[in-house]
Design a protein that fits this description.
- The structure holds two protein chains of two kinds.
- Chain A is mainly alpha-helical.
- Chain A has a domain at about 1-15 and about 25-85.
- Chain A is built from three helices and two strands.
- Chain A has a two-stranded antiparallel ribbon.
- In chain A, strand 1 (about 120) and strand 2 form a beta hairpin.
- Chain B is about 40% helix and about 15% strand.
- Chain B has helices spanning about 1-5, 10-20, 25-40, 50-65, 110-115, 160-165, 180-190, 220-230, 250-255, 275-290, 310-325, 345-355, 360-370, 375-400, 425, 435-440, 470-485, and strands spanning about 45-50, 75-80, 120-125, 170-175, 190-195, 215-220, 265, 295-300, 405, 440-450, 455-465.
- In chain B, strand 10 (about 440-450) and strand 11 (about 455-465) form a beta hairpin.
- Chain B is globular.
- The two termini of chain B are about 15 Å apart.
- The interface between A and B is large, with 68 and 81 residues.
Chain lengths: ~140, ~500
């Protein structure tokens, strides 16, 4: 299956495929010995995820976060114990779908109010850093 | 007189204001004075809106003088969690990335509070973007528990809970995504409600996990919480997940305060290892009390509740990783590193690095992981199936009983600093509250005693089916009345963290 490109530079399939055997280690929540929980995510993977999430983590933060995320992932993986064959997923609890309102124009923010809190403004528009790779 | 006014409940203030025994201006001044006197120690507020509060109070007084009879909350002060947008006041969500941001519109709940004449005292402290159980994740420093200033007030709506427990406000608004109203209410010895999901509008609530976020009330009594619950609830066309149904009669239920003949189920799975002994013993006494009041108590098993916490820590971070993508440094909020040499993506990454705290980063990265292709089915997909199983557990349980009960939290308030760098331990604070969030049901926490080992408040947690919020108010009010009769005073009168 080719990687899915969402058109925003994020390649969804750029992580390694799901490993079939979940890493050994405590699965109780919390793990019986949290400090001994096996790493289920590498430092490089965390660095990659941070890039995808547009967070410029420092090396020190990566050192700190990677083992913590490893513990958390080992614990939340407990959901995989549940035999869920044929169980439909729930994305939200109300069951509401396709909620529309009448197509009636209502007042909206004017340009001054919309731009009032912008970090930078030019000619009644949001001024942003360059988005293309030129010079 | 000033002290007396801050000790009064919202219901008492409402009656005194309606009969014009006191003015809204006097009531507001008394609470602003209290804030000035104690908030340097409690740090419940990120922003105190003294001028606009007094202006609002003056307006209510003028209306009453002109013969108008505004609603029951007119002139009653309220504190609002800093996650609700408010015109004329900053909204930071406890985050550097929104420091100094002044939203251009009011949240629906802000608007409804203003329309009801409730006087908005200011914005309360919270864990950054509502992620946490202690307010220690606030970029602006933690709030302190009025029972013991060295302990957390819970979170994420810890500032709101602390403000009410410290008599800085009779009422406050919070949001509950995994327990963020009920857990701080329990550890601060007050009442807090998570209404049915969709029963209170999310419009203008800065989103954390949209399928879970539920605004709700805090008060020092069950009736006060019900009065605020009713004032903020009801269908909102601006929120597509808002339920178009009548608001459950929670005020009438709080006044009814009667459990005779009600079937109450004790959840087997929300007990045992990991729970503080004093929490369990006080909870057991509360159950005995309800039985003595005529309730039929049985034990009910909800076998999938043990998977609620892991499922929550996949679903909530997944939704947050998507929701918080909006903080991109382009249209509002912080922008870091825009020196003409960096492109937009670099500026985004530097801004998000500087603007977000550790817990928010942890959850965004966890959510990004759980939603990644190749991991999606194993994590997010599985968690969504667990969510279905938890809803089925609730459905089966509510086929046998009218409400379910448990302790609100496994432990009483923990010391500031104890869990701040141990996310797993912090997450356990929401063990009992998460199932109701995943199912979209209603639940309330009401004070049920002090734990014998540390003298800190324990909460009784009452869970009701969606749109049956009134049932839990009946139970909570009955327990409150019986406990208060036993103690001779409300539990909160024993809070001594700020002196007498």
């Amino acid at each position: 299956m080719p990687p899915k490109d969402y058109g925003n530079g994020l390649i969804a399939d750029s992580l390694p495929p799901h490993r079939s055997a979940f890493p050994p280690g405590p699965t109780a929540f919390p793990p019986a010995h949290p400090k001994m929980a096996c790493m289920s995510i590498t430092r490089d993977e965390v660095a990659h995820l941070a890039r995808l999430a547009r967070i410029a983590l420092s090396d020190a933060e990566l050192d700190h976060l990677a083992p913590q995320l490893g513990q958390i992932i080992a614990a939340v993986a407990q959901v995989q114990e549940v035999a869920a064959e044929g169980i439909p997923p729930t994305s939200h609890a109300t069951g509401l779908t396709n909620v529309y309102r009448d197509d009636v124009p209502i007042p909206c923010l004017g340009p001054d109010a919309a731009l009032d809190q912008a970090p930078a403004v030019e000619e009644q528009r949001f001024k942003v850093p360059r988005i293309l790779g030129e010079g | 007189m000033t002290t007396e006014l801050t000790r009064m409940t919202a219901a008492e203030l409402s009656a005194a204001l309606a009969s014009r025994d006191v003015s809204a201006t006097e009531v507001t001044r008394a609470h602003l004075d209290r804030i000035a006197a104690v908030d340097d120690r409690v740090h419940a507020f990120l922003h105190v809106a003294a001028d606009s509060a007094l202006a609002q109070a003056g307006d209510i007084d003028a209306r009453r003088q002109a013969g108008e009879r505004p609603g029951p909350l007119a002139g009653v002060p309220v504190a609002v969690k800093d996650v609700f947008t408010t015109v004329g006041m900053p909204t930071t969500c406890g985050s550097r990335i929104l420091e100094g941001w002044h939203p251009p519109y009011d949240a629906t709940i802000t608007r409804r509070l203003r329309q009801a004449g409730a006087v908005i005292l200011g914005k309360t402290n919270m864990d950054e973007f509502a992620m946490g159980s202690s307010t220690e994740n606030s970029a602006f420093g933690p709030s302190h528990n009025p029972w013991d200033l060295d302990r957390v007030p819970g979170g994420s709506s810890g500032g709101s809970a602390a403000a009410v427990a410290a008599f800085e406000a009779p009422l406050a608004i919070g949001t509950d995504t995994g327990g963020s109203i009920r857990q701080p209410a329990a550890v601060c010895g007050i009442v807090g409600t998570k209404p049915t999901y969709g029963g209170s509008s999310r419009y203008g609530v800065v989103a954390f996990a949209s399928s879970l976020d539920t605004p709700g009330p805090f008060g020092r009594t069950v009736l006060d919480a019900a009065l605020l619950h009713e004032a903020i609830s009801g269908h909102d066309p601006c929120d597509s997940t808002s339920i178009d149904a009548p608001v459950p009669p929670v005020v009438a239920a709080a006044r009814q305060a009667d459990v005779a003949g009600m079937r109450i189920g004790v959840v087997t799975e929300l007990s045992g290892e990991g729970y503080q002994p004093g929490v369990l013993s006080r909870f057991a006494e509360a159950v005995e009390l309800l039985e003595s009041l005529g309730a039929k108590v049985t034990e009910v098993s909800c076998p999938h509740f043990k998977y609620a916490l892991p499922a929550y820590y996949l679903i909530a971070p997944s939704e947050c990783s998507s929701n918080l993508a909006r903080f991109d440094a382009m249209r509002y909020g912080l922008r870091v590193g825009d020196d003409g040499t960096r492109d937009a993506e670099e500026v985004m990454a530097l801004t998000r690095e500087r603007g977000f705290g550790a817990e928010v980063k942890r959850r965004i990265i966890l959510g990004t992981y759980a939603l990644s292709s190749g991991y999606y089915d194993a994590y997010y997909g599985k968690a969504q199936q667990v969510r279905t199983l938890i809803i089925r557990d609730f459905d089966a349980a509510f086929g046998q009983v009218d409400v379910l009960v448990s302790p609100t939290t496994p432990t009483t308030a923990f010391p500031i600093g104890e869990r701040v760098d141990d996310p797993m331990a912090m997450y356990l604070a929401d063990l009992c509250t998460i199932p109701s969030d995943l199912a979209g049901n209603a639940a309330i926490s009401v004070p049920c005693a002090l734990a014998p080992e540390d003298g800190l408040p324990v909460g009784l947690h009452v869970m009701a089916p969606a749109l049956a919020d009134d049932r839990m108010y009946r139970v909570a009010a009955a327990a409150e009345a019986a406990f208060t009769a036993r103690w001779g005073q409300p539990l909160i009168a024993q809070a001594k963290g700020l002196g007498s």
